[in-house]
Amino acid sequence: QVQLVESGGGLVQAGGSLRLSCAASRRTVGSYAMGWLRQAPGKEREFVAAIYWYDGSAYYADSVKGRFTISRDNAKNSVYLQMNSLKPEDTAVYYCAAKRGVPSYDPNYDYWGQGTQVTVSS
């Protein structure tokens, strides 16, 4: 079983930045993806960003392109999400997630962290 632990959430004003971190308990053998999904109050969980570990390619939701950047640290089995120019509509619980194979743009992932709250004030 892969354990995922998120950190870095918090309260920030609109236009500010946050950096989320997610550490996996172990390095997964084979092709897999790690990324971030979020769920805002009253809304369904949605894809934010993911990275394909095999080649490092990144995937982003249209709503965050140009503002968020996903990155990885192979040595630490970790993935990060740098969030800039935050908007109130970015307010959500952000979940680190992983799956076997290539990333997907829907919330169909195999492993989940407990989530970290990101709140962007108006």
What does this structure look like?
The protein is mainly β. The chain has strands at 4-7, 10-13, 18-24, 32-39, 46-52, 58-60, 68-73, 78-83, 92-100, 111-112, 116-121. Strand 4 and strand 5 form a beta hairpin. The chain is globular, with a radius of gyration of 13 Å. The mean pLDDT is 94.
Basic shape: globular
Mean pLDDT: 94
* SS-derived structural category: mainly beta
Strand content: over 45%
Tell me the series of helices and strands, N- to C-terminal. Answer: EEEEEEEEEEE
Number of helices: 0
Describe how the helices and strands are arranged.
Blueprint: E1 4-7, E2 10-13, E3 18-24, E4 32-39, E5 46-52, E6 58-60, E7 68-73, E8 78-83, E9 92-100, E10 111-112, E11 116-121
Parallel strand pairs: 2-11
Antiparallel strand pairs: 1-3, 3-8, 4-5, 4-9, 5-6, 7-8, 9-10, 9-11
Please name the defining characteristics of this protein.
globular; four-stranded antiparallel beta sheet; seven-stranded mixed beta sheet; mainly beta; 122 residues; 11 strands; single chain
